[in-house]
Amino acid sequence: MKPINQYLVLRKLFWLVPALLLAQLAQAQQDPMYSMYMWNMMPISPGYAGSSDVLNVTAISRIQWAAIQGAPTTHSLSGHAPINRQTLGAGASLTYDQIGRSTTTSFFGDVAYRMRFRNKTRLALGLSAGFNHAQIANTQVENTNPNDPTFLNDQSGKILPNFGFGAFLWSKKGYVGLSVPKLLRNYMGKINTDGVVTQLSKEATHGFLTAGYVFPLGTVIFKPATMIRMTEGAPLSVDVSANFLFMEKMWVGAAYRNGDSVTGIFSFQITDQFRAGYAYDFGISKLNRRANGAHEIMLSYDPVFSRERVRSPRYF
Question: Do the beta carbons of residue 39 and residue 298 sit within 8 Å?
Fold first, then answer.
């Protein structure tokens, strides 16, 4: 057996351990976390596809722990629409997630079968299929030995296929959703250190329970919402939010995530088809208090082609 050079192993661990520790901090949130989930549930539930009854395209950018170098950043683009207005919905989501020197690109397509009940409540059962591709940029590491093979090439992860399901029940004023967007627990990659192969962490399984309802209060609309996030190997995460709609144009609200953050939310309906939103997370955990919270920007557009199908404002 080839002898192991202890000095080389220690030096590689010196660079790898911080990256792995940062990855462990994000282990409980391998799926990106969003504060404005109540207006776009495409990233977490294929059952949501087509629920708006018009074509919708939404882009979200999120910068988490803004004061920490290498902290998570997420950019996502999703779209969905009814195929057959009565029975089918379809959509797709593209996500680019970066933490430290590791990046993950995800693409998933969704299809939902929709059923309508007599009281105008509808139930959609959705399936999603797609893949994640993870990569670690070893070549960006400042290394004292430029010939160290560990850092000569980027660590390319495999294309990891996955699939998920979701159920979404909604009416004009409220909704309830249940979903598991990724069912398979793939290994994210591996590290080869002098012939010793170490598997990186597995993809965590996430389950989501969402609910919201709209209450008219005179000329103001009040919409409470919640998202319960169940992640394997992590504490239960509960988001509770309250948003108010003024003049059918401007949403103002706040949210609380247990033990993690308090969020201020603002969204404006610029036209019947275009909406912009911003959220800021004020950290209340020890890490988040030192990390300057998180910024999130949302742009949403409904490129409708028939005036009679415009529904403005959209409540969820």
Answer: yes
Rounded Cα distance between 77 and 298, Å, is 10
Q: Was domain 6-303 assigned CATH 3.40.50.2300?
A: no
Domain residues of the chain, as ranges?
A: 6-303
Dist CA 181 CA 112 (whole Å) = 13
Query: What does each of the 316 residues of the chain score in pLDDT, given as a tens digit?
Result: 444 444 343 344 333 433 433 344 344 446 778 999 999 999 999 999 999 888 999 999 999 877 677 778 999 999 999 997 679 999 999 999 988 778 889 999 999 999 999 888 999 999 999 999 888 765 555 555 555 554 445 555 678 899 999 999 999 999 999 999 999 988 765 655 555 445 566 778 899 999 999 999 999 999 999 999 998 888 899 999 999 999 999 999 999 999 888 999 999 999 989 999 999 999 887 766 666 789 999 999 998 765 545 555 678 8
